[in-house]
Amino acid sequence: MINSEEKKKGKYSRNPIIAFLGTVFFPGFGQIYNGQLKKGVLFLSIILILPFIYGFTRLPTFFYGLVIMLIIDISFKIYIVYDATATARKIKNYTPKCYNTWYFNLLFISIIGVIIWFYEYDKALGVQSFQIPTSTNEPTIKVGDRLIADLKAFNNTSPNYGDFVIFQEEDNSLNYSMYRVVGLPGDKIKFENNFLIINNNKCHITHIKDTLSDGYAVNEYEEELPNGLKHRIYTFTQAHPNNPQKRISQADIPANHYFLLGDNRDNALDSRHIGPVNNDKIKGKIVFGFWGNTKDRININYNN
Questions:
Q1: How would you write the chain as a 3-class SS string?
Q2: Total-model pTM
Q3: Domains in the chain: ranges and CATH
Q4: What is the mean pLDDT of each run of 10 residues along the chain (304 residues)?
């Protein structure tokens, strides 16, 4: 409460709760509330600039870089909340600034809120995270996996055999699909019992074991692509009831297109159904998994 003597002198205290909540939801506002306009603007600017620094250094494109980034981010945000709250507690005789009015406070909150709302954090970082809802890429990628896609992976290079790419099936769609590249522009693709033949050369396969996927009996194989990359695939012992039977058995890949397959060969609506995917629709490459439903799904590298 402000007593009459304080009102006469124009001296006020600052409310630590307002400083705390204001900074939690609107970074920098707590400092402005405390009369530290320049510090508030500086802290907000740092929060907005840091993702560009992370993106430039490529920190989020590998697991431990992501961990470092999160530690820096969380530590800095905790610091600015602490700074605002601690400063508010110390201020006992505060002379309000010209901007310490309810309408200026509302203006600052609105400006900070709009900036944060429209700020494209993923684009600044150059990565995007995904949580996997389906088993179309088992056994490599499992339901519940949380993955990081590098949105700049193909800025200076082209997709290669074995890359897990994210793509938009429809222009301007916010939904992405992801499958493995098995065919490059100019390749001739054929299938023999779900096994790949690329440019008349059958990919080497090795049976690993019999197992289950979504409760269905499957065979697990190791498949080797033309560039030597080896990966695991599933094939169902019987036709999967949810997978359309109509699919192409061979294809010539046009220029600027890629043939994409799910590792779960009988349970994926991939290029056998939608056709080769135009390079313009490929938006990035899955580089690692950082979390999942079990502890063995932490820090999985998809670059090798």
A1: CCCHHHHHHCCECCCHHHHHHHHHHCCCHHHHHCCCHHHHHHHHHHHHHHHHHHHHHCHHHCHHHHHHHHHHHHHHHHHHHHHHHHHHHHCCCECCCCCCCHHHHHHHHHHHHHHHHHCCHHHHHCEEEEECCCCCCCCCCCCCCEEEEECCCCCCCCCCCCCEEEECCCCCCCCCEEEEEEECCCCEEEEECCEEEECCEECCEEEEEEEEECCEEEEEEEEECCCCCEEEEEEECCCCCCCCCCCCCEEECCCCEEEEECCECCCCCCHHHHCCEEHHHEEEEEEEEEECCCHHHCCEECCC
A2: 0.86
A3: 4-124 (no CATH), 126-301 (2.10.109.10)
A4: 45 89 96 96 97 96 96 97 96 88 93 94 94 94 96 95 92 82 97 90 95 89 96 85 68 96 91 93 96 95 86
